[in-house]
Every structure is written in structure tokens, then in C-alpha cells.
Write a structure and sequence with these properties.
single chain; about 325 residues; Collagenase (Catalytic Domain); six-stranded mixed β-sheet; two-stranded parallel ribbon; 8 strands; globular; binds zinc ion
């Protein structure tokens, strides 16, 4: 079976948004959050409270099989809670990579299906919508201009589903995406434009969500969404927000520099590949913010956990009840 290449659209998507909206006040503040935290050596982050984030899943389907079952969505939420609470330590790969085991951290962030909709009515946290559109993409084929209102995120022309208040819910759209596993919108600046509010959230392909059902190897353990939530809470890929090379960095002091994406699975037996190494240190393996197969994405580091918690006390603070 040919390998299904994972491709995350977060950086090209945000770059397109940024170049389009910077005159309209939307400025991505990820670098500023991280730079600030780095300056403070991220020591001021409090881990006592468990943050609980309500999610709404908007299933937008054309073919019946894209209208995934609730059990698959529940499996996804279960797997997010395992990943963010560092409950993968029994995985045998950790006995082969002790450095990674030592660095892996409980973020003390949890997720649950929204119980009330924006009007205060009871909900199961899942919306379903038939669309005549066969597939979606985050940006246009040519030019660096995003679709202003991305069809999947808008009920205009009866194609997609409008976001629920993006300051109070994590909105996740599930649909058929063109050649992409998923993409997220980075956290907003202090004064995001209305368009930025309307598009905030994550889109995941219906074959990369949850477990069982339509989830297909190697993206079949719900970790596309773990990775995208990392971005949504301000994390970069381990090689930084560029397309690769040793100049960019993810700004995390407990993660060695890395040239580009690592794929498939690590070699095992504690061995590292030199392919993506920069001058100092071997790149981490098993990290969620890389391109490993789902079965080999297992951990966030302490600095990543701090950066995400920092985001939940600043630009995304309305998401969690204080
Ligand atoms: Zn990504």
C-alpha cells in the first residue's frame, strides 16, 4: 500500500491569511506570545488548574460515508484527552527513547463535546450538514489569497456551516479536503477582524479523524487533530514556521533544532536518523508537532505545554472558565 503522505496546511493557510488581512488588523500573535514566553523563560506558567475546552464538530458531507458516526467523534475526543494528559507512556516506543519519555509532559488541558449551543440549548456538540460541494481546500490554487469566507466555514450558498462563537468554542470542521490532512488558524491578536473570528478553528479531512470508521492508516489514531490543536494553541512545527532548513526554529528551548519534517516512524532501539538533524543535537522523535504516522506521535514537551497554557491565559482565555 503506498504511504499516505501527511500534509499539514497550517503554515501556508496562515501565511495567506496574514498577507491578506494584515491591513485589516488581523495580526497573528504566535511569534509574540512565544517570544515573550521565551524571554521570561516560560517560568511563570501555572500548571495547577486543568483547562477544559468545549469542542463543536461540524460534519460537512457530500457522500454518505463522509457523514461519520458519533462513535468515531467520541473516539477522537477520548484520544485527545489521552494525548494532552500524557497517557501514552505505556507505549513500547518510550522504552526505546528515554530522552523523549523524560521530556513528555502532561499539559493538563482536556476537551469535551459542547453541552450547550450558543443559544443555551442542549446539544451533543456535533452538527451535520449535507453539501453539494465534493471537496474543500484552504486556499486558492493560484495566488496567495485565501478564500475570504472559506466555504466549509460559512452557510452562505448553503455550502458549509457557520462557526459557533469562536471565542467560546473550539470549532472543528470535518469534511473531504483536497490533498491535505488538516489545518488550523493560529491564535488571534488583540484586535482580530470579524473575518478572523468567523474562520477561527480547525479543519480535518474525514479520513484523518478519530479511530475506526473512515479513519485510514497511518492517520487513524486521532492525532491529526492533536497536532492541529497544538497549532491552534500557538505551537509551530519542530522545524519552525518555514518550509525547512536550519535557520527557522520552533522557539522551544527543550527541543533541538530540526531541518524539516520526520515521517513514518523512528528507527527504534533508541536510534535516530541524521536526515533532519541540524548542527546541535539529534531532533526529537515521537513529538506531536512533527509528521510521524499517528502510531508514532506520542508527546508534547514541557515548553510546548507551557506555551499552550500561556495561550489559554491570553488570546484564548475566554475558552476556559477561570
Ligand atoms: Zn502542522
Amino acid at each position: 500500500m503506498p504511504r499516505r503522505e501527511f500534509f499539514c496546511g497550517t503554515d501556508p493557510y496562515n501565511e495567506a491569511m496574514f498577507s491578506c488581512y494584515k491591513k485589516n488588523v488581523m495580526l497573528l500573535n504566535v511569534p509574540s506570545i512565544i517570544a515573550k514566553k521565551k524571554k521570561e523563560k516560560i517560568t511563570d506558567v501555572d500548571f495547577r488548574k486543568i483547562y477544559k475546552i468545549p469542542i463543536v464538530f461540524h460534519i460537512v458531507y457530500n457522500k454518505d460515508e463522509e457523514n461519520i458516526e458519533k462513535t468515531q467523534v467520541l473516539k477522537q475526543v477520548e484520544s485527545l484527552n489521552k494525548d494532552f494528559r500524557n497517557k501514552n507512556l505505556d507505549n513500547s516506543l518510550f522504552s526505546q527513547y528515554r530522552r523523549e519519555k523524560k521530556l513528555s509532559t502532561d499539559t493538563r488541558i482536556e476537551f469535551f463535546l459542547a453541552e450547550k449551543d450558543p443559544k443555551g440549548n442542549r446539544t451533543e456538540g456535533i452538527t451535520r450538514k449535507y453539501t453539494k460541494r465534493k471537496s474543500f481546500k484552504p486556499f486558492k490554487d493560484s495566488g496567495n489569497i485565501p478564500l475570504k469566507k472559506q466555504p466549509v466555514k460559512s452557510s452562505e450558498n448553503n455550502i458549509g456551516t457557520d462557526a459557533w462563537d469562536t471565542t467560546k468554542y473550539l470549532n472543528v470542521w470535518i469534511c473531504k479536503l483536497d490533498q491535505i490532512g488538516g489545518y488550523a488558524q493560529y491564535p488571534p491578536d488583540k484586535h482580530p477582524s470579524e473575518d478572523a473570528f468567523a474562520t477561527d478553528g480547525i479543519v480535518v479531512d474525514y479520513t484523518c479523524i478519530g479511530k475506526g470508521g473512515t479513519a485510514k492508516f497511518p492517520h487513524d489514531e486521532g492525532r491529526t487533530l492533536t497536532h492541529e490543536i497544538g497549532h491552534w494553541l500557538g505551537l509551530y512545527h519542530l522545524w519552525g514556521p518555514d518550509e525547512g532548513g536550519c535557520y527557522g526554529d520552533d522557539e522551544m528551548s527543550d527541543i533541538p533544532p530540526q531541518r524539516g519534517a520526520q515521517v513514518d516512524c523512528p528507527k527504534g532501539n533508541g536510534e535516530y536518523s541524521k536526515d533532519q538533524a541540524c548542527e546541535y543535537g539529534q531532533p526529537l522523535v515521537l513529538n506531536f508537532m512533527d509528521y510521524w504516522n499517528d502510531c508514532c506521535k506520542l508527546m508534547f514537551t514541557k515548553c510546548q505545554a507551557k506555551a499552550m497554557r500561556g495561550c489559554l491565559t491570553s488570546s484564548r482565555k475566554k475558552l476556559v472558565k477561570m
